[in-house]
Design brief:
By secondary structure, the chain is α+β, with helices and mostly antiparallel strands. It is 31% helix and 37% strand. The protein has three helices and eight strands; from the N terminus they run βαβαββββββα. The strands form two sheets. Strands 2, 3, 4, 5, 6 and 7 form a six-stranded antiparallel sheet that branches. The chain has a two-stranded parallel ribbon with strand order 1-8.
């Protein structure tokens, strides 16, 4: 295992097109399909970072901000923004592109935690996160700020 891996090394982008099997009766992407794409993309980012297999430990609150219509292109982006001893924190964001209208919009976001595992399925240490460029530091800081805000909102909801 390397001692440090960078945010850029973890960056992953996947694309899908919303087809009929991925839609509900309104012709919009099923939430479960979107969550599946997010989990896969997040896991790839975590594996690239750790150079190990990973398992999903948790998914934070998911915000479905906008529906994704049949025929639209779904772009899922993920990157590591934090680590523990064996855990990897990944920011996952989804946007929809309408290629016919040349438009795009943010649709979904969440924070995932993955645990690196060895060949026996046991947790294994992960590298420290390095952010050598200003762009990487901005992405990491934005994810940390967004997650902190999300957690504050959760606490407020639970207290009310």
């Amino acid at each position: 295992m390397t001692e440090t891996a960078t945010l850029a090394e973890s960056h992953t982008e996947m694309t899908e097109i919303v087809l009929p099997n991925d839609t509900n009766t309104h012709g919009r992407a099923l939430g479960g399909a979107v969550l599946h794409w997010m989990d896969v993309c997040g896991a790839i980012a975590a594996m690239r970072f750790a150079n190990e297999g990973v398992v999903t430990a948790s998914m934070e609150h998911v915000d479905f901000k906008s529906p994704i219509d049949i025929g639209e292109v779904v772009v899922v982006e993920a990157y590591v923004y934090g680590t523990g001893r064996t855990s990897i924190e990944v920011n996952v964001e989804v946007r929809a592109e309408n290629p016919r209208e040349d438009t795009e919009r943010d649709t979904t976001s969440s924070f995932f935690t993955f645990v690196a595992v060895d060949d026996d399925g046991d947790p294994t240490p992960v590298p420290d996160l390095g952010c050598p460029t200003e762009a990487e530091r901005r992405l990491r800081d934005a994810a940390l700020d967004d997650r902190a805000t999300q957690l504050e909102r959760l606490v407020e909801r639970m207290e009310s």
